[in-house]
Amino acid sequence: MYFLGIDVSTTAVKALIIDRDGGVVASASTPTALSTPKPLWSEQDPADWWRGTKSSVRQALHNADISGSQVAAVGLTGQMHSLTLLDKAGKVLRPAILWSDQRTGAQCDEIRRIVGKESLIAITGNDALTGYSAPKILWVREHEPWVFAEVQHILLPKDFVRLQLTGDYATDKAGAAGTLLLDVKKRDWSAEILRDLQIPLQWLPETHEGPEITGTISPQASEATGLRAGTPVVGGGGDQAAQAVGVGAVEPGIFALTLGTGGNVFATTEEPFIEPEGRLHSFCHAVPGLWHLMGVTLSAGGSLRWLRDVLGSEDDFSTLVARAKAVPPGSEGLLFQPYLTGERTPHGDPLTRGSFIGLTLRHDQEHLIRAVLEGVAFAIRDSFELIKSCGMTTIRQVHISGGGAKSPLWRQILANVLDTELQTVNIVEGAAFGAALLAGVASGNWSDVNEASQATVVQSGVTSPQPEAVAAYQNSYDVYNQIYPALKDITHQLSYLSMT
Q: What is the pLDDT of residues 284-321, one digit of tens each?
């Protein structure tokens, strides 16, 4: 018996197969293209997600040397917030507007005006941010009325893949919470928000818990993927909720820190916990009956990739990061703001920009690299501090994962900046693994998500803070916190200039 997790990420569609003990048997990944037709825009063709799914599933089955009939269930995960619009027949009406798209600032203001910011946060758990689905819907209504007139279905990326696999319109509660249309306390669509924004309820799919079966593989999808017709497909979860399942953050006190293209701090809660100003995301967990708080840094590993490209370096990331080891903590007075695509937490500001502060003739490439690593760590600390300010001061474990977590130096910098012990686990593809675990729970292989996590997620290493570096970074962090308010007006003016 095997379980399949499919992750529809921004850069690729990944398929991962595990056995009934949670061992990874095989995986495959198919890249997907990203389009930026205008400044601040970010789009994808949903057809690429389906092509990637077919390719990755078939390749994973081949790599595992098993037949599709041996897969007992399928779990789905993927990028959150991205808007896919379909007509009555299920035909895609326009390219999907992605979570990273920043065009909807005016629509966010409109939502706050219509609903009221306090009411919006109280119901959805979140403020209106450009990444969410709801402002994207309003943007299409305002700027592409001919498209809006044909809309009959609204789906997230993984749910578009679900439709192709099963023929059913459905979503999970964790992913739905990221649309700004869900009542986070009731764990279902908000009649009040939909009424105020004039979005028909019938356009939205039914919501399901993460391990709940939402449909089965259709004969057409069976032929396309090699999976057995009738194989159950479960709700799954948004990428960060599935990632949390995959790395063992399925109970209060266990945090998940993901260091990928973006950086995410994930804290599981037993009840919906809402930050009053909406600076943290409050979503449903993929675990039934649980919620989570989350802080997001939009450009974490993305900042390091940007720097490598700008430097024209041909080093792989491990070699690039190793060059910064000789630079002392604080980069000799050089600080970096990783706001290359705006920022979510704590500022919720799509117009802010990245910056190096404190450059001198002494600073070389190694200092720039180290400052980027430290700047991302400071931005992630902002999320930790906000979560603590909400009363969640008990942190029993922090499980770190993602591509950036492979770097011992970056892990050490993070441990020192956060003054917290970081644990690595045996899972590499956390989101796809979490989706596969949810499929295993639905199949009865494990009684619940907690049992599945405890049976499969194992600590593989520990990085402890170093007292001297902790003190040095506290001083740097105090200065770092002064940069955003000092530069806010200037970065906004520059952003407006670039759009004219």
A: 999 999 999 999 998 999 999 999 999 999 899 999 99
Nearest to 466 by CA among 328, 363, 260: 328
Q: Closest Cα to residue 434, out of 450, 421, 447, 418?
A: 450
Pairing status of strand 12-19 against strand 2-8? antiparallel
User: For this structure, is 159 an active site residue?
Assistant: no
Three-state secondary structure call for residue 370: helix
101 belongs to a structural domain:
yes
List the CATH number of the domain containing 196.
3.30.420.40
* Burial of residue 372, with CB atoms counted within 10 A of its CB: 0-12 exposed, 13-18 middle, 19 or more buried: buried
Collapse the DSSP code of 70 into the 3-class scheme (helix H, G, I; strand E, B; otherwise coil) and give the result: coil
Q: Cα 290 to chain center, whole Å?
A: 18
Q: Is the per-residue pLDDT at 137 higher than 80?
A: yes
Report residue 58 CA to chain centroid gap. Answer: 25
2-16, 159-173, 251-265, range with the lowest pLDDT = 251-265
Q: How far apart are the first and last CA of the chain?
A: 58
What is the C-alpha separation between 217 and 76, in angstroms, rounded?
13
Contact by Cβ (8 Å): 358, 374: no
| Count: domains in the chain | 1
Q: Tokens at residue 476, please?
A: 């740097």
Q: Is 159 a member of any domain?
A: yes
Phi, psi angles (nearest 5°) of residue 199: -115, 120
Owning domain of residue 82: 32-51+72-241
Q: Name the catalytic one among 239, 316, 448, 489.
A: 239
Q: Could you give the CA distance from residue 436 to residue 22 in angstroms, rounded to a whole number?
A: 9
Nearest to 66 by CA among 13, 7, 8, 20: 20
Domain assignment of residue 149, yes or no: yes
CB-based contact 318:407 (threshold 8 Å): yes
Q: Which helix or strand (DSSP H or E) is residue 475 part of?
A: helix 467-498
Within-domain flag for 195: yes
